[in-house]
Amino acid sequence: MKPLEISVLDLAPVKQNKSIHETFNDSLDLARNVEKWNYRRFWLAEHHNMASIASSATSVLIGFIANGTQKIRVGSGGVMLPNHSSLVIAEQFGTLESLFPGRIDLGVGRAPGTDGLTAKALGRNPMTINEQFPKQIRELQQYFSVENQNSAVRAIPGEGCDIPIFVLGSSTDSAWLAAEFGLPYAFAGHFAPEMMSFAFEIYRENYKPSEKFPEPYLIACVNGIAAETDEEAKKLTTTLYQAFLNIIRNDRKPYSPPVDDMDAIWSPMEKAAVLQKLRYSFVGSPETLQGQIHSFQDRFQVDELMITSHIYEQEARLKSYEIFRQVVDLLNKA
């Protein structure tokens, strides 16, 4: 099996009966623990108008997490670039990199991270997104370059900062773009499993080496729920099921605690839709996870596994990430 790096995608999940202040402290607590367990990076995702997700001001939250940790890389998974000016993002991440040298990642995506009405409120123009997104990546690269010092518009802070840019995607469009630009590629397998295999194939077969990334680099984001037993993990997973069910029902309320019987909540059609979207979810005991991850890696041969874990209780969430670290360590040694 190809050795795996392991990382975290955090959405700053808001749970019932918890404040957003507590949510942010839970995210910092998670970051400090996964840093202790030698996770590679801790990314936060930009979403808007969702009562269950508090990571809308992604750059601000990255600063909070980076300031509370010491060595783990912290970044965006991602910033939805067409929601912003390229210059503003270059300045924000240049500021972060200047505050926390060698620890900041910039993952960028083209989706709005929200519904259509909120996307309009963000000032997006859907008619120009496909042209705008690659142009903005080039603008970021220019703003971060030392050569931009002679330009009329400069990103300060930002200029000369060594900030790796990752292309995020949930379709094949982003795979072509990441390959063309010679950038690392992170796929959202945790909610868009349908195109992942094809996207990876496109990326690898069409990759054009760049100075910073002479080889392709693939990150697969997946759902992960680990516990001491399969039964416990399956029950914890009902929080994830309810979250996706709420999206289907357009009810974006805070996350719910686990339940004993999902069949009392969803219809057979809803169940099928949720399980299809969560195809790439690793759920179970350490022994079960070993087989699941080994099978996944045998098929996809990714460089990094990025785990997002929708677990209601903080202690159970921490335990899950600790188990994943142990399982991946065992597989890497095999």
Describe the structure in your own words.
Helices cover 44% and strands 15% of the residues. By secondary structure, the chain is of the alpha/beta class. The protein has one domain (5-226, 281-333): Alpha-Beta Barrel (TIM Barrel). It has an 8-stranded parallel beta barrel with strand order 1-2-3-4-5-6-7-9, surrounded by 8 helices. α2 links the parallel β2 and β3. α1 runs parallel beside α11. The N and C termini lie close together (8 Å). The mean pLDDT is 95.
What are the salient characteristics of this protein?
alpha/beta, 9 strands, TIM Barrel, 334 residues, CmoO-like
What number of domains? 1
What's the gyration radius in Å?
A: 19 Å
What is the overall silhouette? Answer: globular
Share of β-strand residues: 5-15%
Please write the CATH class name.
Answer: Alpha Beta
Number of E-type strands = 9
Order of helices and strands: EHEHEHEHHEHEHEHHEHEH
Q: Numbering strands along the chain, what is their spatial order in the largest sheet?
A: 1-2-3-4-5-6-7-9
Organism: Chryseobacterium koreense CCUG 49689
Pfam family, one: Bac_luciferase
GO molecular function, one term: oxidoreductase activity, acting on paired donors, with incorporation or reduction of molecular oxygen
Domain Luciferase-like: 21-298
How is this structure best summarized?
This is Luciferase-like monooxygenase. This protein has 11 helices and 9 strands.
Topology:
Blueprint: E1 5-10, H1 20-36, E2 41-44, H2 58-67, E3 73-80, H3 86-99, E4 104-109, H4 116-121, H5 129-144, E5 165-169, H6 172-181, E6 185-187, H7 196-206, E7 218-226, H8 230-248, H9 268-277, E8 281-284, H10 286-300, E9 304-308, H11 314-333
Parallel strand pairs: 1-2, 1-9, 2-3, 3-4, 4-5, 5-6, 6-7, 7-8, 7-9
Helix pairs in contact: 1-11, 3-5, 6-7, 8-9, 10-11
Domain Luciferase-like: 21-298
GO molecular function: oxidoreductase activity, acting on paired donors, with incorporation or reduction of molecular oxygen
Family: To bacterial alkanal monooxygenase alpha and beta chains.
